[in-house]
Amino acid sequence: MKFLVTGGTGFIGARVVVNLWERKIPVVVADLSLNIEWTKQIALLKYQDDAAKLAEMQEQIDQTSFINLDVSNRERVNDVFLTFPGITHVIHLAYLMSAEVEADHNRGASVNILGMINMFDMVVNHKLSRLVFASSETIYGANHSAYGDENYAVKEEDFCSLDDHFFTYGVMKMLNEFTAQKYIKTKGVSIAAMRPPIVYGDGRMRGSVLWACEFATNPALGKKAKLPFSKDSRDCWIYVDDVAEQFVRLSLKPKLNHFAYNNGGHSVTAEELMQTVESIVPDAQYEFDERVPRTALVDRCDSTRLEEEIGFIPRSLEDGVRMQIEEARNRQLQVNY
């Protein structure tokens, strides 16, 4: 068994790689803009007080290949599988986020549409055991009202029209999923999609949702957090390490019962989110932007299907926020040291 993780030194990708290291599964890490030291740091910080585990992690790091990869370049993508024979699984996370897509639709389509099709072809051409890729909650559109009851948790079979969408990014995810199911039906391959909501944690470095890091990391370091929406805005949040665990478990399960899975998460208002931070950092300072009533995202996602499939329930919001705060502080201590 050997994994390829694309976008492997990004916000979620780095956590997936560390998860595979913990399992001692060989991995090839590919990214257009490699941030190798950041990925290593996540692993080494996690086990800084456990010498034996730290040595194990260092051994895994030393055996890992890191490569630059533009997934829109089909020839280069194929070369990866020729250069590193034995790849059996792919977790595909190389994608341009919404703001980047809107800034450059040509590049967005190259990476997000052509790049995804290139990966689907690799599953066929190299007879991979499975490809799991990141879809998104944005596939459900920009407003929870499309589903009626505000307390309703959106399920995988739910659908909204293009008129209810806001992000080009989300519509691209719809096409990715549609195309993937074509490959499954016509080629007999194993492909699965996961639809994360807002993924929070320390270390998010790009994209239009940097606030999903800053809301807890800033108070942890004595800085003010600014959320660009109302305190009453409700969203679904999940901790980054839990998403990594979900990706790896879904990749490893021999047989899957479905194609698409909601990651789930905790549905809270922005005010409730910051109250959770405040319970851990009592002097936390934060502010909201009441001019923006809500985010262009659905409010609740049902995760029953995924929990039953892989037997994993994400940690509580408080535990996730606490982990983020501790990691941010430990990272800052290392920088200062």
From TrEMBL:
Superkingdom per UniProt: Bacteria
Domain NAD-dependent epimerase/dehydratase positions: 4-254
InterPro entries: Epimerase_deHydtase, NAD(P)-bd_dom_sf
Pfam families: Epimerase
Alphabetical keyword list: Carbohydrate metabolism, NADP
Keyword field contains Methyltransferase: no
Transmembrane segments: none
PANTHER family in UniProt: ADP-L-GLYCERO-D-MANNO-HEPTOSE-6-EPIMERASE, NUCLEOSIDE-DIPHOSPHATE-SUGAR EPIMERASE
Protein name from the UniProt record: NAD-dependent epimerase/dehydratase domain-containing protein
Lineage: Bacteria, Pseudomonadati, Bacteroidota, Sphingobacteriia, Sphingobacteriales
